[in-house]
Design a protein that fits this description.
Number of helices: 11
Number of strands: 13
Strand order of the largest sheet: 2-1-6-5-4-3
Largest sheet: 6 strands, antiparallel
Strand content: 15-25%
Length: 372
């Protein structure tokens, strides 16, 4: 077949473009003979381009369903209804080498209701889907483990109380009921965190920012912690003079601080310091890049524990990360990061001045543009 210089250039450009796509591309004519395939397709099929060009695509790309039925027999691109344009992605297997691939098909016709004169097949290795399925299975396993522990405790204590109520003293009954309540709270917290993770991952998390006095919020959290049994002298508050209010969702800011304070008590020692100051230049640039004015406020929660190793500081914000110990759901810091970023802010972990870990949250101090 003869080509004009313009046609040669178009075909050359199309070939170069096909080599850039990450999927395997195979094109066949109206008789099913392979006209073109890119390098990725040859790797998936395990055969050279010279072997495949001109071969029947139904034999060279021998696709089958999970039940062993030939995909080409079922779909029959060159027959059937003349309004078909192709097939959506489907998990199939190559009979030649047993490799699982995700296949998408496109049928081309010279005109409306005309026979198919070109079939394009896109193939993608299914290994990534298997990895995603393995990750999902790991998440389900982790959630099941986190739920099973408190529920086992609730079931055990409640069953014991029902069977042997008269054998226990009032103090023993109170202790078991308090344990049941604590475990029920743990399950509730896990479910709440899972719902927040789902909202964060899907982009459905809603933030309703209001101007908030940082000092008042800090002292409210301290009173709450003292009421739950912590010593007041384990807290220190340091708020810079003439600090502006932060613009944040009050409920979400409470959730952020509660998670970080709880984390400080769980992993730290000594005094927990809550401080607030004007954002540094780096944080201000981040806030400005997200549509806020450069002015911002940094909230810092520091403990006096062992700290967090530099190579773990990005990992702490991942899902179900526990580090060297257990005792939490492993979702708290992931939720903190998602909530802070939903405000247009930034969270990072660093060394505290007196040792231990310090979490720095940079939040805007002026209303977002859509409110202003």
């Amino acid at each position: 077949m003869d080509f004009t210089p313009g046609q040669l250039m178009d075909n050359e450009s199309a070939g170069l473009a096909a080599e850039l796509i990450p999927d395997g591309l195979v094109a066949a004519d109206g008789d099913g003979k392979i006209l073109f395939l890119n390098r990725r397709a040859t790797r998936i099929l395990g055969r050279s381009r010279e072997e495949l060009i001109g071969a029947d695509i139904r034999e060279a790309v021998d696709l089958q369903d999970s039940d062993g039925t030939s995909w080409w027999v079922v779909t029959n691109p060159w027959g059937g209804l003349r309004i078909r344009t192709g097939h959506r992605e489907k998990l199939l297997m190559l009979r030649n080498n047993g490799r699982e691939v995700l296949v998408t098909a496109k049928y081309l016709r010279p005109g409306r209701n005309q026979p198919v004169n070109r079939v394009n097949i896109l193939m993608r290795d299914a290994a990534y889907r298997r990895r995603a399925e393995a990750e999902n299975a790991a998440v389900i396993s982790t959630v099941a483990h986190e739920l099973r522990s408190p529920l086992t405790s609730v079931k055990g204590f409640s069953s014991t109380l029902l069977r042997r109520w008269d054998r226990f003293t009032d103090d023993q009954k109170r202790l078991m009921i308090e344990t049941i309540e604590a475990d029920a709270d743990r399950v509730t917290r896990l479910i709440t965190e899972l719902l927040d993770v789902s909202r964060i991952d899907s982009g459905r998390l809603q933030i309703r920012p209001l101007p908030i006095d940082v000092s008042a919020v800090f002292h409210r959290h301290i009173e709450r912690a003292v009421a739950s049994g912590h010593e007041r002298d384990r807290f220190s508050v340091e708020v810079a003079d003439e600090l502006p209010e932060v613009w944040a969702d009050p409920d979400r800011l409470d959730q952020i601080l509660s998670n970080l304070i709880e984390n400080a008590f769980r992993h730290g020692e000594g005094v927990v310091t809550l401080s607030a100051q004007h954002s540094d230049d780096g944080a201000q640039r981040v806030l400005e890049s997200k549509g806020h004015n450069a002015i911002g406020v940094d909230l810092l929660i520091a403990d006096q524990g062992k700290g967090i190793a530099a190579d773990h500081r990005n990992l702490v914000f991942s899902r179900f990360w526990h580090g060297s110990g257990r005792g939490s759901t492993g979702l708290g810091l992931y939720v903190v990061k998602g909530l802070v970023e939903a405000h247009g802010g930034r969270v990072q972990v660093e060394d505290a001045t007196g040792g231990g870990a310090q979490f720095r949250i940079s939040l805007p101090s002026e209303a977002p543009d859509y409110l202003a």
